[in-house]
Design goal:
heterodimer, A: alpha+beta, Alpha-Beta Plaits, 8-stranded mixed beta sheet, 7-stranded mixed beta sheet, globular, B: alpha/beta, Rossmann fold, two-stranded antiparallel sheet, 11 strands, 4 iron, 4 sulfur cluster binding (chain A), iron (chain A), metal ion binding (chain A), transport (chain A), ETF-QO (chain A)
Chain lengths: 545, 263
């Protein structure tokens, strides 16, 4: 909806998204050039409101960005003190021996367990101190392209009714025009998607492959709390060809971060990531940590797992993609914060260069990435995730160990991803239904009580932000062939099948959406288009998430 | 519109409206009781303007836009971060703001006393407050301020009209509406249906950064902020028991008799 009346404002750089990548870019820009005006928008109601991550972070990029981060009081307060990796069978957890040699990328010495939302809030304060203008509560809804150059973004209109017409308190969006625009929307950004299509940025690279992470934060009795304990698992309850695993981290004041990631290239249409996540808590390896505690928040987010092979062209006339918008996550390491930040910093350097030389495209970003440790790191680990896709969990683990101990990341070959995650589902009739136990209300819960804890809210009277490009496809494909996989993969209960026995049709409860973007990725016909709802909508994750 | 549109309209040359706003846990957040039961967790939780105060701000700004007032001043009493709440008010159209630093969770009586001092200084014709704050649901500050100042009060307002040195307030009461006419200056507390507050638009948020915001210390106003109330304990409501589907009426009767013991 383009309104002629909307106001506009000019900046040197506009950044879309207030996560680690966008904030690091903003900080670096102002450090390098204090007279460069930087405006950052964030669709969450406040910085951190939409941040979900484990999170164990490596402070490498942070130390480069703000060498005095400790004196400045960065909220990295729980150093990793012990770590385990378990291969789970239904009843037992087999500890992987010599973890630091078999899976050196997993070694977490020197890393910290954090609330990434809290880290982002802190980074935002640092950025504001440097003069970055930060506006949470405003969603980038439209990419402005003029003469084939990105010239900024427009925020969404506010106060538009369900029927798409302006309501009583209608406020048109605003054009934020920038000489350069950095897209830092995280995985599967809705504007990034448009930019990638417009400039064909994915040409010649592997399809992106994704994971869905679902997380809970628990408060547990002090006597059970072991700050800095980090545990991961793979194996049960996933079958060998499904990639994924659970984590459990003790951090902060008696807090435990628990969660589960599943590769969205899974094949079984009956698989429910949410219910897998719930039932893993009942496994003896995890159960003992959570018993006697209370769940305080819940959230979910998709993440990019493609790594090096799936990274698109990074720049285009007028801007660049940074962080997980580009797909800089290091999957074998299960970390993306340091790479996201590093990419934001390198993009900032490229932009400052481009401003000086008055270049349309900050193209030196690509070279800077290729010469940095970020590239080296992604290059070394590039074959691990595709090995799991090709040879399953056990074969993948063996390959990963070989890769680490023998090849040391220097294999002369590169394994590729062949399929989009939307192509991997098998028809319902061919898949076996997993058994999911009923929630017990103590350790395991249902979707709705979970979404409630994410404090998700959307202004009710607004157009549905999850759009079906062709509504009739749902019945013929999603229902008839796959039996509505969206009702299972959506961790927030947005998609519901109504009148299942008589006249099955899809009901979209858009107000529940936690902005994880899984539907945009996994829908078998790519029929669901995730667009930004009114700014400020979505989850309101507290510090701790 | 009534008298407002008539040429005979008599508005004082200067008619200020004072709007106190409170920073509270955002209405979307499920409040969590602290592990030690001493209160509700507020650290790291999203905080926003009390929704009833947004309605008060909106009403004051509308009165100024209609010409019934010349200036709207927002005030917040509490911690430094309350200035974010004031910036929101400024972005909604308030002209300037005053932050009175007093520490965490000041009680209604202390707040009313601070407001009295500010009223003496600013001499507003109207003070419009939210009827209550959604954190402690006290519903007291407006009434206490009216008492301290000896002004008339129109509480639970669902409609406000200013004319001829008076203000007509429709009050929401049990079973209907009550209209009261108050001489100015007066106190109004806003109820839910008074208006639908506007969004703080991005251009207005940008402009609000440049509007004046004055910071005062409660102690400098000579108000004792020491709490008069003691919180004995804070607890979450007991969680609801899960329902159960029964097969027959006989089973229901049996359960009502022997389990619920209600028949």
């Amino acid at each position: 909806m383009s309104e002629p009346v909307r106001e506009s404002m000019e900046f040197d750089v506009v950044i879309v998204g207030g996560g680690p990548a966008g904030l690091a870019a903003a900080i670096r820009l102002r450090q390098l050039s204090a007279d460069t005006s930087v405006c950052l928008i964030e669709k969450g109601g406040e910085i951190g409101a939409h941040i979900v991550s484990g999170a164990v972070i490596e402070p490498r990029a942070l130390a480069e960005l703000l060498p005095d981060w400790q004196e400045r009081g960065a909220p990295l307060n729980t150093p990793v003190t012990a770590e385990d990796m378990f291969y789970l069978t239904p009843t037992r957890g087999l500890r992987v021996p010599f973890l630091d040699r078999v899976m050196p990328h997993m070694a977490n010495h020197g890393n910290y367990v954090v609330s990434l939302g809290e880290v982002c809030r802190w980074l935002a304060a640092q950025a504001e101190e440097l003069g970055v203008e930060i506006y949470p509560g405003f969603a980038g809804a439209e990419v402005l392209i003029e003469d084939n150059r990105v010239v900024g973004v427009a925020t969404g209109d506010m106060g538009v009714g369900r029927d798409g017409k302006p309501g009583a308190n209608y406020q048109p969006g605003m054009e934020l025009r920038g000489r350069y625009t950095l897209f830092a929307e995280g995985c599967r950004g809705s504007l990034t998607k448009q930019v990638m299509a417009h400039y064909d940025l994915r040409k010649g690279v592997d399809p992106q492959t994704y994971g869905l992470g679902i997380k809970e934060v628990w408060e547990i009795p002090a006597e059970n709390h072991r700050p800095g304990l980090v545990q991961h698992s793979f194996g049960w309850p996933l079958d060998d060809k499904t990639y994924g695993g659970a984590w459990l981290y003790h951090f902060g004041e008696n807090l435990v971060s628990y969660g589960f990631v599943v590769g969205l290239d899974y094949a079984n249409t009956w698989l429910s990531p949410f219910e897998e996540m719930q039932r893993i808590k009942l496994h003896p390896v995890f159960r003992k940590h959570l018993e006697g505690g209370r769940r305080i928040t819940y959230g979910a987010r998709a993440l990019s797992e493609g790594g090096l092979q799936s990274i698109p062209r990074l720049t285009f006339p007028g801007g660049a993609l940074i962080g997980d918008s580009a797909g800089f996550l290091n999957v074998p390491k299960i970390k993306g914060t340091h790479t996201a930040m590093k990419s934001g910093m390198l993009a900032a350097e490229a932009v400052v260069d481009a401003i000086k030389a008055d270049r349309v495209e900050p193209a030196s970003f690509t070279q800077r990435v290729r010469k940095s440790w970020l590239w080296e790191e992604l290059r070394a680990s590039r074959n691990i995730r595709p090995a799991f896709a090709r040879w399953g969990a056990k074969g993948g683990a063996v390959y990963a160990a070989l890769d680490a101990m023998v090849l040391r990341g220097r294999a002369p070959w590169t394994l590729h991803f062949k399929h989009e995650d939307s192509d991997t589902l098998e028809p319902a009739a061919m898949c076996e239904k997993p058994f999911y136990p009923k929630p017990d209300g103590k350790l395991t819960f249902d979707r709705l009580s979970s979404v409630f804890l994410s404090a998700t809210n959307h202004e009710e009277d607004q157009p549905i932000h999850l759009r079906l490009k062709n509504p009739s496809l749902w019945k013929t494909v999603n229902w008839n062939v796959f039996r509505a996989p969206e009702a299972r993969y959506c961790p927030a209960g947005v998609y519901e099948v109504a009148d299942e026995d008589t006249n099955p049709h899809l009901q979209i409860n858009a107000q529940n959406c936690v902005h994880c973007k899984t539907c945009d990725i996994k829908d078998p016909t790519q029929n669901i288009d995730w667009t930004t709802p009114e700014g400020g909508g979505g989850p309101n994750y507290p510090v701790g998430m | 519109m009534g008298l407002l549109d008539s040429p005979a309209l008599q508005v004082k040359d200067v008619m200020k409206i004072l709007v106190p706003v409170k920073r509270v846990v955002d209405y979307n957040i499920k409040p969590r009781v602290k592990a030690d039961g001493s209160g509700v967790e507020t650290t790291g939780v999203k905080m926003s303007m009390n929704p009833f105060d947004e309605i008060a701000v909106e009403e004051a700004v509308r009165l100024r836009e209609k010409g019934a007032a010349t200036e709207v001043v927002a005030v917040s009493i509490g911690v430094q971060q309350a200035q974010d709440t004031l910036r929101t008010a400024l972005a909604m159209g308030v002209d300037r703001a005053i932050l009175v630093l007093s520490g965490e969770s000041p009680e209604p009586l202390a707040v009313a006393k601070v407001l009295r001092k500010l009223v003496e200084k600013e001499e507003p014709g109207l003070v419009i407050l939210g009827k209550q704050a959604i954190d402690d649901d006290m519903n007291a500050t407006g009434q206490m301020l009216a008492g301290l100042l000896g002004w008339g009060q129109g509480t639970f307002a669902s409609k406000v009209e200013v004319a001829d040195g008076r203000v007509l307030v429709s009050r929401e009461i049990d079973g209907g509406a009550e209209d009261v006419s108050l001489s100015l200056p007066a106190i109004i507390t806003a109820d839910l249906r008074l208006n639908e507050p506007r969004y703080a638009s991005l251009p207005n948020i940008m402009k609000a950064k440049k509007k004046p915001l004055e910071t005062l210390q409660a102690a400098d106003l000579g108000v004792d902020m020491a709490p008069r109330l003691t919180i004995v304990s804070v607890a979450e409501p007991a969680s609801r028991q899960a329902g159960e589907k029964l097969g027959s009426v006989a089973e229901l009767v049996e359960k009502l008799r022997n389990e619920a013991k209600v028949i």
